[in-house]
Automatic annotation (TrEMBL), chains A, B:
Any one GO MF annotation of this record: methyltransferase activity
Positions of the UniProt region annotated as Disordered: 1-45
Record bears the keyword Cytoplasm: no
Alphabetical list of InterPro entries matching this protein: MttB-like_sf, MTTB_MeTrfase
Species in which this protein is naturally found: Denitrobaculum tricleocarpae
Family of this protein: Belongs to the trimethylamine methyltransferase family.
The keyword Heme is assigned to this record: no
Keyword set, alphabetical order: Methyltransferase, Transferase
Protein name, UniProt field: Methyltransferase
Amino acid sequence: MNDGGLGETAATAIENDGSSRSRRTGRSSGRRGKRAGRQNGFTQPAWKTIVNPYAPAEVLNPEQIERIHDASLTILEEIGMDFLLPEAREILDKAGADVTPGSERVRFDRSMILEAIANAPSEFTLHARNPERHLPMGGRNFITSMVASAPNCSDTDRGRRVGNQVDFRNFVRLGQKLNIIHMFGGYPVEPVDLPPATRHLDCLSDFITMGDKVFHAYSLGRERNLDALEMVRIGRGLTESELDQQPSLLTIINTSSPLRLDNPMLTGIIEMARRNQAVVITPFTLSGAMAPVTLAGALAQQNAEALAGLAFAQIVRPGAPVMYGGFTSNVDMKSGAPAFGTPEYIKTAQIGGQLARRYGIPYRSSNVNASNCVDAQAAYESVFALWGAVTGHTNLLKHGAGWLEGGLCASFEKVILDADLLQMVAAYLEPLEVSDASLGLDAVRDVGPGGHFFGTEHTQARYEKAFYAPILSDWRNFESWEEAGSETATQRANRVFKQLIQEYEAPYLDPATAEELAEFVSKRKEEGGVPTDF
Amino acid sequence: MNDGGLGETAATAIENDGSSRSRRTGRSSGRRGKRAGRQNGFTQPAWKTIVNPYAPAEVLNPEQIERIHDASLTILEEIGMDFLLPEAREILDKAGADVTPGSERVRFDRSMILEAIANAPSEFTLHARNPERHLPMGGRNFITSMVASAPNCSDTDRGRRVGNQVDFRNFVRLGQKLNIIHMFGGYPVEPVDLPPATRHLDCLSDFITMGDKVFHAYSLGRERNLDALEMVRIGRGLTESELDQQPSLLTIINTSSPLRLDNPMLTGIIEMARRNQAVVITPFTLSGAMAPVTLAGALAQQNAEALAGLAFAQIVRPGAPVMYGGFTSNVDMKSGAPAFGTPEYIKTAQIGGQLARRYGIPYRSSNVNASNCVDAQAAYESVFALWGAVTGHTNLLKHGAGWLEGGLCASFEKVILDADLLQMVAAYLEPLEVSDASLGLDAVRDVGPGGHFFGTEHTQARYEKAFYAPILSDWRNFESWEEAGSETATQRANRVFKQLIQEYEAPYLDPATAEELAEFVSKRKEEGGVPTDF
């Protein structure tokens, strides 16, 4: 794990030589939108958003879904939820909820919940500063995002370390470079070497200047939300009212399960929904710990918490873009450790989708695993998670590339592994063509029994684009593979991530915009940033 | 790869000390049928066959399936297939097929094909010598089998070597020991140190004496088929006519794609179908090589070859148990190397299931990958293959545990990895209970906002069996995992496979049966075995 300093050298070199320069000068690559396929040696499919053409998995029958729905409304009616923020309770009181005086508890008539969420749009667009990167959310769309919120990061050259700005920026470079990654779902790794009061200014500035994709803003205090709204407005060159019409930011709201929403989360819902920005309500319901040990019970609680948050957002601003987040997994009952990519996870990811569709609200799930290194476990847990997410008709896949250790580490090699997995999912979701030409009876006739198709015209006309070309899979025979050094997929991923960071170029940013953004960041830093004691 | 001789020592010790002795003495373990859960330290779910409760994936719509169906019948009508065995052409000529005189080519009216396969049973039972191991085939049943037919094998202690009897027997021990493995689909590894003329006698004898599960007989010449039929009859203690009533053997018939069935395969269909034993017709249609480069074309050819073989088996004996085998994958068009577990593979596995259901014939698919070691690639390609197989409603999963290198190597570590994957699939296929008890509203009420579910009665009553307990997944935090040696899943699998071989005990076999079988093997060896020049 510590046998090379190359990673650091390369990363540092790029850091001093890449985005910072282009950000400061506003240098354009001049090739925006034309780049696909081979870029300085790395071949990838062109940027596109993904549509899932297949029917969703239905793990539960409609009656079972109704029982979970009904149980969750009973929870909200009889037990209620704690809303810690007084402002939130005032809003809910005015809207007709049962707010217990002198307490944080709020109970909801089921009709109140259902009427509120009926205002939620079933589809909406998230706007990027590059119009080619706008993202359709909901419906049959499958949108991916980078790993988010890991406190640590790792690569196999240098091992595991605490998050920092150099690594943060290299993850941003990878997320921008990889066409299969549609957006940033948060800080890939937390740059703890940056001061907490101004960290969000640096990170959001990096998202805007080093990338041109949609990004996420944390709800960790009102001032951070307001800064993010202003920065995305500047980055996109919008007026305030234009921003109100164009959802351009997304925030993840995690409930403090069981049945609580805390101050920064409620503030985030208020500030973001008020400005018509996307709010994703994701209960953190680990079955056996913060939720019942039974999956049905955990899902009922997930649904109650999600509906309460969604209803609150719709009460703040009817019609504001929202998403239903599913994150129910289980814990290892021997150790209490969270588990991901388990059989239980596949089911809850699929049932979460059924519930979200029950309400016509876009659905968020994740690409997760609990392995401590990029090994077979990391791979199989991730693909099981993708199985649940894809067949569950996830609209937004959080932690799409790079998650490790149940979220405690962002791995550079795992980014590449996951990019390959996601590219495979995208290829799988391409509908199969069944036509006279693709059935190819003439080719079968020409080749006949015992022949070979390699040389036929039917093959020659199609072979270059016939099949998915993987990033990592090595299909050589054993002898060739052994002679070349017996590399594992993880070792190959190590080479690829370093190559991609080297090849990264900052996307075009209008110099005036860059200057306005830099001035805003500078001004806010001079003001001292934001409170850190919320 | 060569840093330890332990594997060999352990394996040899067991070989000299385990099954051979118990086989010769007919020693009973005395605990047959009572063993489940923890056995000398290894915990696994009890033996059970698996039912898939979810709806199958429908990648193509019914019209598209009909187009492939129609194209395949056109292939059989206009192009035809080469049947190399004169006896087979005579049978088909009598049945009304268009057999070109002086040629191997046979063409079929579409009605002839459809009428013949209409006799195929949609479900049947494969009988083991232990009645608890009988296997329901077809319908919603999901039956798994061990890796088969690898010429090489490997473990990470000793690396890769050519197949041999010691390793063969250790794979048999693992396949017998693992409850998630329902049957043997062929020799896990080819024991090339055994003389070809009598190898099948030793291997089949091992299946019967070292295991009590259903097994497969190769169709590599009439005499081998007849020996296998006699040996399974002896092993099960049946009369000839009883065997005719009870399918107890399975044979895989691969077409020589494109559009050919060779002598041993046709002989195998004749001998096995004639005795009412299970015949699985599996075209080996690698898109871009032995089949069109388009998946639709490859599937049309797969379907044509499968229907021809299935129809032939039904003409030999109407109502004989058969299965529709799907094995369509793609090749790497740069190198010609076969690829497995690709996006293309998921689709063809699912569409193969749609076609098999179109005809009401049980479906066979596989757990495949093309990695050269047990790394992330081996894991993700395998889970993608399982995704296709499971959602495609596979009834028989070939190569369920141990396949590596596109079938050129059987890996001991991969057996354990796959057993874990299959156990996870089985847990995923357990229907979720939605009831008042599982919804657990009382537990949610008791815990309330901000509480914890670990200590509740609802949790305490259920936690031991609430979630799948993995073989390999390590969910400890990074620090604990690192302190314990930073093992990968593959390193853990290495320990587990050796432990299981150590713990293996031969299942009970009636001494008289053992003696009769040994006498048959001895007599056939004295006779010189079988021809090897077919």
